[in-house]
Write a structure and sequence with these properties.
Layout lengths: L3 E4 L6 E3 L1 H12 L3 H17 L4 H12 L5 H9 L2 E3 L1 H12 L3 E6 L3 H10 L8 E4 H4 L6 H11 L6 E5 L2 H9 L4 E3 L3 H10 L4
């Protein structure tokens, strides 16, 4: 069987550091860490659903901090928090070489994904993206998984999904999507071999 594989982004393909993000935003916007944490948490759900834009977040943060900064500096502080998980990216490349369809399924925001696309060439390996801010739903909501099957043009019997968050994996399994929790590259490699994907 030809599988379609859905990958989570954060802490599977790219490690991220939320504390670094808060520190950078606090520093560039003249805010305390507490103020920054409160603001980012307040906006998180709407921002990752696409109902709040980066421009809105920028305007509110700048107003609160009272320090004039450019939109570019703000988005860089917000987004320069990623490091690639090279062993998993190597597996991604092997799957692509075997003709496996690859899709990204991620709770993310436009600033983070735009930054990732600009700085990490491996994202070009994907056939498509299911991004929370574009589809208006977040994992573990069933709508985002249903959208993934639709965009991936596959049934739940023809795909495999990997995510580091157990609740998101369980939500996919409840829709009969074959899913595993990402723990480390060697275990992921085993899952892929087990299914004949590699």
């Amino acid at each position: 069987m030809k599988y379609t594989v859905f990958f989570d982004l954060g802490n599977v393909l790219l490690f991220f550091d939320h504390h670094k993000m808060k520190q950078q935003v606090a520093t560039c916007c003249n805010l305390s860490l507490e103020e920054t944490s409160f603001l980012l948490q307040k906006y998180l759900d709407g921002y990752e659903r696409g109902s709040i834009t980066t421009q809105t977040l920028y305007s509110d943060v700048v107003e609160l901090g009272g320090k004039p900064i450019s939109f570019t500096d703000f988005t860089h502080a917000l987004s320069n928090i990623f490091q690639p998980n090279l062993p998993v990216i190597a597996l991604l490349e092997k799957m692509k070489d075997r003709g496996i369809k690859l899709f990204l399924l991620s709770n993310t925001c436009d600033a983070h994904f735009s930054f990732a696309q600009k700085h990490f060439a491996f994202l070009q390996l994907f056939d498509g993206f299911i991004l929370s801010y574009e589809v208006g739903a977040r994992k573990p909501e069933k709508e985002i998984y249903q959208k993934a099957l639709e965009i991936g043009n596959c049934s739940h019997k023809e795909c495999f999904y990997i995510d580091d968050v157990p609740a998101f994996v369980q939500a996919a399994r409840s829709l009969h999507i074959d899913s595993e929790i990402y723990l480390k590259p060697e275990i992921l490699h085993h899952h892929l071999i087990q299914r004949g994907i590699l």
